[in-house]
Amino acid sequence: MTHDVAILSQQERMQQVLRMLETRDAVRVAELSKAFAVSEVTVRSDLSELARRGLVARVRGGVRPLERGQSELGFDFRLRLEVESKQAIAKAAAAMVDEGEAIALDSSTTAYYLALELRTKKELVVVTNGLLIAAALADAPGISVLVTGGMLRLHAMSLVGDIGAEALRTTRISKGFLGARGLSIDRGLMDLNPDEVRIKREMADACERVIGIVDGTKWHRTALLPFVGTGEVDAIVTNTSAPPADVESWRARGVEIVCVDPAGGAPPVPPPGLRRFSPP
Predict the structure, then answer these.
(1) 3-state SS string over 236-267?
(2) pTM, whole model, 2 decimals?
(3) Residues 37-40: contacts with CB within 8 Å, 24+ apart?
(4) How confident is the model at residue 68 (pLDDT cuts 50, 70, 90)?
(5) How far is Cα 217 from Cα 221, in angstroms, rounded to an integer?
(6) Pick the residue with more confidence: 52 or 42?
(7) Domain coordinates of the chain in residue numbers?
(8) What is the pLDDT of residues 113-124, one digit of tens each?
(9) How far is CA 256 from the centre of its chain?
(10) pLDDT of residue 2
């Protein structure tokens, strides 16, 4: 037993479980008890809390990732979910971007659709940790793309870690457009993966204005970790399926809410491959 393992908090233990489930079909109570140097009763409590938050599914003797559509999915699959809503949100968000600005886009699929809408802008600087977002803008003549460094996360095709965080700390950006797995009036914008959460926090801290880009399904979800508190969110662009009572609660906190009505959007555009940086 190591001292470092012994002092892990419940939050830290739950983060570790989620990391393990990114590459495994299941984790077991006995295994986690040994790894964290805590009792099986404590581990079961941790797993029950993760299940209560809708982040894992309980199985006999442990937990597994949620079924498709519930847990973190690959970028290409998520790109095909809520397509019309994401495209409508992207159009509305693009209208908030002025030519000559420096903006930040995270690695979310809604940010990918926003990148496509920005291709005709001029004298725009885009900072992103999303490789496919960068690829979508790579040959746009009026756009300069700055990609943060870091370790590659295959699920999101994103770069995370200390290198990217350090680059963001020395950058000032006018607007940041950030997707989220869930949002809460009490906790703000939230996501699932701890590494993604960290880079999103750094990105938000570098921006003068933080704008959430979330479709209506995200208003009914929770996630493990907040990356921007409610008081730090300047605006949210969403669609009309967002629950009206929640929308009004955010507006009462001084957050600008833009609700768009999706209407018969085009089919999803497949992201460009990493070997060919051409527009989709």
Answers:
(1) EEEECCCCHHHHHHHHHCCCEEEEECCCCCCC
(2) 0.74
(3) 37/1, 37/2, 37/5, 37/6, 38/8, 38/13
(4) very low
(5) 7
(6) 42
(7) 3-64, 75-260
(8) 999 999 999 999
(9) 20
(10) 43
The Cα–Cα gap between 78 and 195 comes to 19
Counted residue by residue, the chain has a size of 280
Reading the block at residue 39, the tokens are 């009792």
pLDDT digit string, tens, across residues 2-15: 444 557 889 889 88
Alpha-carbon gap, residue 198 to 179, rounded angstroms: 14
Residue with tokens 């419940």: 10
For domain 3-64, give its CATH number from 1.10.579.10, 3.90.1150.10, 1.10.10.10, 1.20.120.530.
1.10.10.10
What's the pLDDT score for residue 70? 41
Q: 242, 236, 153: which is closest to 198 by C-alpha?
A: 153
